[in-house]
Amino acid sequence: xxxxxxxxxxxxxxxxxxxxxxxxxxxxxxxxxxxxxxxxxxxxxxxxxxxxxxxxxxxxxxxxxxxxxxxxxxxxxxxxxxxxxxxxxxxxxxxxxxxxxxxxxxxxxxxxxxxxxxxxxxxxxxxxxxxxxxxxxxxxxxxxxxxxxxxxxxxxxxxxxxxxxxxxxxxxxxxxxxxxxxxxxxxxxxxxxxxxxxxxxxxxxxxxxxxxxxxxxxxxxxxxxxxxxxxxxxxxxxxxxxxxxxxxxxxxxxxxxxxxxxxxxxxxxxxxxxxxxxxxxxxxxxxxxxxxxxxxxxxxxxxxxxxxxxxxxxxxxxxxxxxxxxxxxxxxxxxxxxxxxxx
Length: 343
Hints:
Layout: E1 4-8, H1 13-23, E2 30-35, E3 47-50, H2 57-65, E4 69-72, H3 79-82, H4 85-105, E5 111-117, H5 144-162, E6 167-173, E7 175-177, H6 184-189, E8 194-197, E9 203-204, E10 206-208, H7 209-221, E11 226-230, E12 236-237, H8 238-244, E13 249-252, H9 257-267, H10 274-282, H11 289-293, H12 303-313, H13 322-342
Parallel strand pairs: 1-2, 1-4, 2-3, 4-5, 5-6, 6-11, 7-10, 8-13
Antiparallel strand pairs: 9-12
Helix pairs in contact: 1-7, 2-4, 4-5, 9-13
């Protein structure tokens, strides 16, 4: 049973919320939240330590507090959160390496839970109907969050081999949605006009933030070694999701997609990398049998229910600003024209 728990990445919503949930559990005596910037919301009785996991000083934090459980939630999904792609990679990969090195040296550490992503499977036209945890991606990620997640998982597997006495759990989450969580995909569905890739209607899965937090809690409080896909039941196609969000779509030729992504980044309304554009072309679906049979966990929200709660709670069906719609449409048209001129 966990007693002293350290959570990385508490300045963001999910990390901070999970620290709050842990400190309310009577079986946890101490919760330490770590990040480079203070959290925006009160962590309750959880302690906040301002520390950079890229710095070896994180080892002193673990040793001094005699941390027995580490929950690693500090892998960033977008360069905007980090201040640039180079910094993002440092935090994700170098930060994880330093954290694992500190855990390896600390005899008190008995459990490591890593928040990963189904992005490790990539997205390609050759993908299977469903990815199980043992399948390899058909197209290796070359950039961005997916590549970082693959590297992070590789280092975690190495740590598990070096410290077989530590229970190591890797949770590959589908796309988070919910009342408060913010991700590149929630920003995408919040656009007043949603660009899509002409001729593609990918299958998508979602996990509600409440189910995601409960999965983290279960694997923190109980021992479940291994890798697990975490997603709600069923799938939604992209076109179904856009309709449920009450948004108009704008189908664009595939060659124009990178230009549109660049335009949205410049407007700071959404942050799209090449991997995310591939995801919005080919989609991704994972098998969750291991989640049900080994973790004994059934999500309260299906993918459809999770998405509907996100739409309702974030008020996406409200009136749209004509100025905002016009700005986004003009940016898309301009990007499309520039892309055509350079082709």
